[in-house]
Amino acid sequence: MSFSSQYPILLEAVPLAFAALCPIVGMWKRKLCFPFSVAGVLATNFFIFSLWGKVTSTNTVTYALGGWRPPFGIQIRIDYVGLFIASIIGAVGLLVLIYSWRYVSHELEEEKCTYYYTLYLLLFASMLGFTVTGDIFNMFVFMEIFSIASYALVGITGQRRAVRAALKYLLMGATSSIIVLLAIAFLYGTVGSLNMEDIAGRLQVGGYTSVAGVALVLFLIGFAVKAALFPVHVWLPDAHSIAPSPISAVLSALVIKMGVLGILRIFFTVYTPGFADLSGTWNALTQAVAWCAAISIVLASIMAIIQRDFKVMIAYSSIAHIGYILLGVCMLTDRGLTGGLYNILAHALGKSCFFLVAGAIIYKHGFRRITSLRGLGRSMPVTAGAFAVASLSIVGLPPSAGFIAKWYILWGCLQKHQYAFVVMVLLGSLLAAVYCFRVVYYMFFVGPYGDGIDEAPATMFVPAASLAAGTLFFGIFATLILPSLGSAARALLAG
Amino acid sequence: MSDLVSEFFLVVAAILVVNAFLCLYRGAAGPTIQDRIIGINIVNTKTMVVLLVLSTFLGEELYLDIALVYALLNFVVTITISRYIET
Amino acid sequence: MKLKAMSRTVRETIPLALFLFFLWLIFTEKTNWEHLLLGAIVAALFARISFFMVGGRLDPNLNWKVALRFFPFAALLSWEIMKASWDVLTRVFRPSLPISPRIIEFDSILDSDIAKTMLANSITLTPGTVTVEIEGKRFYVHCLAQEHESGLLEGKLERMVAWLFAEGPDDMRGLR
Amino acid sequence: MGSVAKDVLTVIFGLTGVLFFIGGTVGLLRCPDLYSRLHPATKCDTVGSCSITIALALQIGLDIALFKIMVVILLLLVTSASSGHAIGRSAFKTGVMPWHKKGVVPWPLKGEDRWTGR
Amino acid sequence: MNFNRIAHNLNYVSSVVLFLLGLYAVAVKPNLVKKIMGLNIMETSVFLFMVSIGMVGSGNAPVVTEGVKPATMVNPIPQALILTGIVVAVSTTAVALSLCIKIHEHYGTLNASEILGTGGPF
Amino acid sequence: MDWTLNLLLLMLLLATAISVIRIKDLLAAAVVFSAYSLVMAILWTQLRAPDLALTEAAVGAGVTTVLFIITIYRTVRKED
Amino acid sequence: MRKAIVVLALVGIGVMLIYAVGEMPPMGDSGNPDKVHIAPRYLEHGEEEAGASNVITAVILNYRGYDTMGEVAVIFCALCAVVAILNREKPGLSRTSMDVSGVKASVVVRTTIRFLVPVIIFFAVYIILHGESTPGGGFQGGAIIGASIILFTLAFGLPESTRKLPLRFRIPLESFAVIAFLAAGFTGIVFGVHFLTYLMPGLSEYAAETIRHIMMMVIEIGIGFAGGIIFTSIMFAMIREDQCELQPDSP
Fold it and tell me: Chain B: nearest CA to F80, how far in angstroms?
């Protein structure tokens, strides 16, 4: 077996190894933790991006762990969507890690830094594992790792509100994990398999359809909590606004996307759309999710407008964007699905940029009120500029990635003649414009202007600026990935 | 082992479980925390004996290890609680 | 000097290692040579580790004589335990519940930790008495009824334990 | 020993064990305070489990499982006595007064301060 | 509903009841430690459910010994999965309890309605 | 008979779970919770899962209960 | 009001679940879907394919070894989380309220624990080493080791325990389980087979089986000791009380 065919497993094993070695390195020399973890993430990125060529040529890359044939052993299955999300994880993870160096050494006690990097690497590794696995129980295990790591990272500062938010997050997250496990139990009891494709094949055969339907509902509830969909989003504003800013960025950009990915996998890989006996339940559930998503767009945007705290506003905006993504997915047209997937990219870049900017401002000045952002456009030009560019993407204006995503989502809604959703998406964009440009207004057009430039350190503004540049890049050169994303969406819809 | 004896042991196990029920009343209702610990301690001992009986009855010696672990961990919990109460 | 200390360590570890090896034989139920070798290695290793954990020998008062004397002691003790349980059983089933508990205290002749532990455990397991506290040499015992109290103060158990560990004044030792 | 005699002995020992266990339960439920509840808890249960073990041992015969059961029972003897003591001590240290009949002095009171501990 | 079969699947039914009890504790009980206990009860109920799925009537433990045919053994897969599940449960519990300790340091109470304020679902 | 034992154990399990939820004294609830784990373990021997019984006895009755007790002693004991 | 809503939702979920349970295949039937698909192969060939007569061990170490790697990562993650939230104990400075109160454990308890701790740890090691043929395995043994160390701490105090198990000894052991798993996996990669394959190609049958046996045992030992040390560290971090920290070690 050639070394390059081992890449699918090295993708998760390498960051995990770095995570396991990190405390030992930290025990030896605490300063070395940061370069060590950067090395780990860089190596992982190498493996991720080396896989692109293979996946685009063969559509799916599979890897049997332990050499066992798929239904008997665990299988890693990397399709286009999985690799797409894995690449986002790799890139955003690297930038945020570089960003967190100064931030963490400023905010945390020295003793906690080692464990910050360890938990970060574990989070990173487990998200990658979740993305590429082809086995539902394995998915659950990785879900638990990144959940526990993110509970801890939310509360790592040990401050009053941080611990509270972490516990709130933990109670909801653990409940949802149990519900997912229950769903796995139901599904296993009726089909006797854990491999996703194998389950799909055996569900087609039929038998015990109603139990499988209940399992589908439970899966949906569980992953919806992880993704912070409308009725169960309550943990998100607290957790995302109070966590350390780099962690907020990762949580908003990547971790809630894992819930979306879970829903995608369940809807399209396990319970395929062409599934005859359950199609009634399936369609009803997609409709329900679409409505929840649409409601969360409008509601979360309104909530974001009335916030005074900068980070809470960004957190509410995340809920709205999860709504966009799921709305696009649940339109069940190839355009809508493409738009939803593209919005994962656009939102990951834009939202992590937002949080990094917020972190830089907190690092420099220590305030979080929107009204106190006055004049930052002069004193911190790069940071504020990055915010302005990223807000284009969040609002969905050309020439940004968010525009392409929203355009496709709208197109999907129009294909299905769902005009109510069109109105809600447009309303959501309008509201987004209000809350984003209010901040931009305060930054650039309201005095008093400070004297001279007082910029954040380079390791902080460079990641933010490059994320903002990324939104523009993927807006202008959208054709780089849109066609293959479209074909991936068609493949998902075909089952 | 004759059928009669194995039936007998099953009856013994069932009686012990019923007994454990009654002890649980003390565990749930006992006025002081020590009362509860005593009740739960008895429940645990009974559970352990039920395990011994079951392992002999089912002819699986595997369960003896479990009984041993019970005996040890019952002790751990009791000592932990009483040690914490007395300080 | 160092060698001497080492040899002492080894000598004191051996009984524990043998005991652990015996336990290993009971646990594994297998007698092929791989398992025996594994057992020997693990027993030696863990005897050493526990030596380190408890900071020296398990107890300085333990020796082979005590181990030999333990068997008659155990036989007597189990007879006492049986009597005790029967007594408690009859009391519990009597509708009038004939108990009149009180706490008594007495000074023991025993000195070492292990002897006190043995005495306390024996008291706990025998007629209607439970040791509730030991302060130095002073024992506080909860008695269920008058008979138990006098039985305890007679000191039979104490003499048995004193005999077991060869402690206390000579005239107080002995099995009766 | 004939098989029938063995079975009869087994049943006798088993019934004794059950009797002791029931006695423990009844004692636990009937006794007035926690100190007196400790007595059935530590004694009757130990004897009951020993008795049932003998019944089991008769059925198993001389086997390695028998040794294992004996290890369990030895452990039970040691731990039940120690944990009974630990529970009693925790109550005594926190100043729980023993229940007593009228006219009986429950405790040779030496200093009042012992009872005012936490 | 298939009541006959519900009565037959007693383990399933009791695990559902336990699940609901745990969920009730998580959602309604004000004390955080109680909530975590409810979480644990929920987890064990799911474990019970899953292991019951793999049960075979009058089967044997899945350990290869002489005189036991593989056909009469119970299904080992749920047991192996639940082993992982127990580890996950105890890890979550440990993290949750350490957060509780930290919360008590800051707030001096573990009452959820005092800490989180009313209005949230938890 | 097997079925009866199973039923009894399930009832015991439910009874322990209900008392865990109902008891106001958290320390007592933790103690009863350890009994819950032990009953669960015996149920698992009934379900022919010795590995799980061992794990539940070691983890549920040992580690989890000890963690609960430590937490309760560092925080508050009475539920209010 | 809120309670009423919750109860209503619970009733809804309960009805749904009871309905699903009623539709499930009858319990204990050997013709159920889960018993005809994958399980028979594990049961029939588990011993020779995976090298463990306890089929559960075969499944968790071999067929689904990747899950177990995740499981080990979960406890490692939990340790990091607890330590990041509560901080490590400080060597020689950390105390518990028990140590400060001056109430020593009863002499009975201390002596009993002194005798029991070696036996318990030894029993745990037996459980760890015999996971292949009898119930038990790394994780269970680890939990028992953790329990025995907590007993030791209760009897002799936290300073004594942390002196016996210092941080520089515990930190490498904590990540030992993950490292052992990954090392087994990377050995496979070096030999050019899939990750977590235990049978190496190009060796004689006896050598390959011996190597497999050794690798599985190393993993079990790794999980066991790392698990025990992880539980110990979690408990130390939770027991330690900050207000007692400033009192120096007694000489």
Answer: 17
